[in-house]
Specification:
Oligomer: single chain
Pfam families: Ferric_reduct
Order of helices and strands: EEEHHHHHHHHHHHHHH
Helix content: 55-70%
Main location: membrane
Organism: Myodes glareolus
Cofactor: FAD; heme b
Strand order of the largest sheet: 1-2-3
Number of strands: 3
Structural class: mainly alpha
Largest sheet: 3 strands, antiparallel
Keywords: Endosome, FAD, Flavoprotein, Heme, Iron, Membrane, Metal-binding, Transmembrane, Transmembrane helix
Radius of gyration: 37 Å
């Protein structure tokens, strides 16, 4: 039944009730049976003038009475026609979907609370800002402060491009690893509890709800890293260095400066970086609501989980090949500190290794059974006993 209410203060003395199933409309305020000669045989709506004059007077009196009556809530209205036994529609609650009772001086519920400013982005932005700041200070210490202290050489010109371009990939791959790390932790928690019906800790639940924002920030920083890398040949300092390299080659009487392994290194890690960025772009596009709604759950889950791990793997291999033989170069350890690419691959490597362990058949089958509703009786009973104690 579809009911519709109107407040009498609006000037409508009758309450309108519509039956959606039958199409009947009843007006409890204006009743034709109380009007003599209201409907004649010869006309569709014919009435004597005195009858309508009396009705107009009654309506005026009722309007004055409504003005004299104090305002009340719709739920507390007790004005009813006791003579006829008919109860006013104001006293009966309407069962409309999404209907909210609003008092005279109440505002809608959606306006009672102030709108929050990017609530789901706070945690990812905070973590990205912290990681960026620490990486920037660490890189400045190695690239700028160390040569200034040891050899009195100033390399502050490296900060706008070179230093920033070492910070961006570090933060990007860290945020991408943080997208898939809570899934690993959730699987371990489910294996430990033996059931999927026990709630995750609040911090883990909040972390899992922010994975989309972590991924989008990672993609944004990866795009910036690609743009900064493409700007290398346009830098004036790079052109001066290129002239110096050519002059040194002439001074050393070298006809060919070709270095085979260095060529292979750059070709491979650039190619892997492009493919990884393309997969990240696909993940970002499928996270758009209009695109994700057009996909089935199986398709969306495959893209976000399987291709996401592939992009993390490509990013990790990209960093490892970029390092090449620098892993064993002692000169890379400035003030006994490892280079940034060594620190950047630690967390992604841990996540990938955990994914490999959890994908083993013995663990994978148990995780799938738990997520399908199976419960380990021994662990669930132990948990219930601990909760009772």
């Amino acid at each position: 039944m579809l009911q519709r209410e109107r407040c009498p203060a609006d000037g409508d003395l009758g309450s309108l009730q519509s039956h959606a199933g039958t199409g009947e409309i009843h007006n409890s305020g204006f009743r034709p049976d109380l009007i003599p000669n209201a409907i004649g045989p010869g006309s569709r709506f014919s009435a004597s003038p005195p009858a309508f004059v009396e009705i107009g007077k009654d309506i005026t009196k009722q309007e004055e009475l409504w003005k004299m009556k104090p305002e009340r809530n719709l739920d507390d209205d007790t004005y009813s026609s006791q003579d006829t036994g008919e109860t006013s529609m104001l006293k009966r609650q309407a069962h409309l979907p999404h209907m909210v009772h609003v008092d005279a001086f109440d505002c809608p519920s959606e306006l009672q609370h102030t709108q929050e400013f990017f609530p789901n982005w706070r945690l990812p932005i905070k973590i990205a800002a912290i990681v960026s700041s620490l990486t920037f200070l660490y890189t400045v210490l190695r690239e700028i402060i160390y040569p200034l202290v040891t050899s009195r050489e100033q390399y502050f010109y490296k900060i706008p491009i070179l230093v920033i371009n070492k910070v961006l990939p570090m933060v990007s791959i860290t945020l991408l690893a943080l997208v898939y790390l809570p899934g690993v932790i959730a699987a371990v928690v489910q294996l430990r509890n033996g059931t999927k019906y026990k709630k995750f800790p609040p911090w883990l639940d909040r972390w899992m709800l922010a994975r989309k924002q972590f991924g989008l920030l990672s993609f944004f920083l990866a795009v910036l890293h690609a743009l900064y890398s493409l700007s290398y040949p346009m830098r004036r300092s790079y052109r001066y260095k290129l002239l110096n390299w050519a002059y040194n080659q002439v001074q050393q009487n070298k006809e060919d400066a070709w270095i085979e392994h260095d060529v292979w290194r750059m070709e491979i890690y650039v190619s892997l970086g492009i493919v990884g960025l393309a997969i990240l772009a696909l993940l970002a596009v499928t996270s758009i609501p209009s695109v994700s709604d057009s996909l089935t759950w199986r398709e969306f889950h495959y893209i976000q989980s399987k291709l996401g791990i592939v992009s993390l793997l490509l990013g990790t291999v990209h960093a490892l090949i970029f390092a090449w033989n620098k892993w064993v170069d002692i000169n890379q350890f400035v003030w006994y500190t490892p280079p940034t690419f060594m620190i950047a691959v630690v967390l992604p490597t841990v996540v990938l290794m955990c994914k490999v362990v959890l994908s083993l058949p013995c663990l994978r089958r148990k995780i799938m059974k738990i997520r399908c509703g199976w419960e380990d009786a021994s662990k669930t009973n132990r948990t219930e006993m601990a909760s009772r104690l």
